[in-house]
Amino acid sequence: MDLVTQIDLCMECEICSDVCQSYLTAQKQAYLPISRLKAAGKILQGEKASLEEIEGLYTCLKCERCTKVCPQEIDMSQIVRKAQSELLKKGDAPLLVKKVKEQMEEIRKTGNPKLGAPEKRWEWLPEKFPVKESETLLFVGCMPSYWLKDIAISSYLLLRKLAIDFTMTKEEVCCGHYLYNMGEIELAREQFIENIENFNRLGIRRIITLCPGCYRTFKDWLPELIGSMDLEVLHIVQVLLPVLKEKGDTNGLKYPRNLEFTYHDPCELTRVGGIYEEPREILRLCGINLIEMEENKDQAPCCGGGGGVAGNFLDFAVDIAAQVLDNIPTSDVITSCPACFLRLSHASKKRQKGKRLYYVSQVLEETVNRSV
Ligand code: SF4
Ligand code: SF4
Fold first, then answer.
1. Is residue 95 included in any domain, yes or no?
2. Domain extent at residue 79
């Protein structure tokens, strides 16, 4: 069904407003999901939207919470994406679009969204990596490679310690998530082709990602734009579960600290990818007692980092993240998304929430280290 027809299906029941963190935080008319649909409808039919309406589109987290509760299952994220794509083409709202465009140009030029020089991509490596042939690629992702190096290091060491076969490449470039997600479909296609050419050159048939965004990009968006291919895409929690299960049966795993944790579900892994039991099961295998948020799994809140909102509206993204932190019952929080890790730990510092964030591999690596 085309997107304009989907917009017309809206019954204006406003069930979606009750779950839209963006609207609930800002309380602005233009941030209501139905306002976003109306603004997108105008743009998709060639009409001009006001700056306020465009702001409403650029503050959508693309979290898909509204779609989950919508009786018509209206695909808000895709509708907003398509409207943003039209705005990029027309050059409307230059101030809002400027940062997005700069980020996109940087990704195509350097292979990452302004996080560092391409030759520094492997600076996080704790040892000389014995580059070898393997059909499995550890796709580290931009954020862990440049900014959140502990995530890259712990994941790498964990996979090595568990004797999971993989290779890596210094030629890794951004998966293209930002390009597709912000509506720049042609640049996304170019990025996907560059990645596929790299994978084919290395003989890669299986990818392990650390980031739910990379996972979704390779699993859903890449085949959508350039056709299906012989490539298995897995998030690291899917790879770890069977291996740790075996280990749990034989050695017994025990996380060495006496802490209580909450697991924060990332939108793209959970609501979109349906992966929420795997990380919980892994953590249980490590003897970790999880205290759940009231809204969890496919009802979990977005960390505030979705939809590229933080790029233009950082304080607003921090407001949303701070509210999420207020609803997390423990001081120690585990997630399996580098972007959620960044957004929530940043908000915790900014708003003195006293939360400590962990990427799932950090906790697991410590557990396995003590148990091997
Ligand atoms: S995708 Fe998320 S932020 Fe956007 S309208 Fe729906 S609930 Fe609100
Ligand atoms: S829940 Fe769906 S049908 Fe109801 S107002 Fe929201 S988008 Fe429209």
1. no
2. 3-90
Protein residue with least CA distance to atom 8, ligand 2: 10
In a 13 Å sphere around the CA of 345, the CA atoms on its Cβ side amount to 16
> What is the Cβ-side half-sphere exposure of residue 268, based on CA atoms within 13 angstroms?
28
Mutate to test the pocket of ligand 2, among 3, 6, 7, 16 (most ligand atoms within 8 A of CB): 16
Measure 348 CA to ligand 1 centroid, in angstroms. Answer: 23
pLDDT, mean over the chain: 94
For residues 84-103, average pLDDT: 84
**Across the beta sheet with 136-139, what order do the strands follow?**
136-139, 206-209, 232-235
C-alpha distance from residue 276 to each of 195, 237, 280 (Å): 27, 10, 7
Which pLDDT score is estimated for 248?
A: 64
Nearest-CA residue for ligand 1 atom 2 is: 63
Which protein residue has the closest C-alpha to ligand 2 atom 4?
13
For helices 149-161 and 360-371, give the axis angle rounded to 10 degrees: 40
DSSP of 207-245, one letter per residue? EEESSHHHHHIIIIIHHHHH---S-EEEEHHHHHHHHHH
Q: How many CA atoms lie within 13 A of 325 on its CB side?
A: 27
**Does one domain contain both 233 and 256?**
no
* Residue 290 pLDDT > 80: yes
Q: What is the CATH number of the domain that holds 74?
A: 1.10.1060.10
Task: Kindly state whether residue 11 falls inside one of the protein's structural domains.
Answer: yes
Per-residue buried b or exposed e for 200-211, using 16+ beta carbons within 10 Å of the residue's own CB: eebebebbbbbb
Q: What is the CATH number of the domain that holds 264?
A: 3.40.50
Please report where in the chains the tokens 């906790």 appear, as a residue. Answer: 363
Give dist(CA 294, CA 248) in Å, integer: 29
Number of domains in the chain: 3
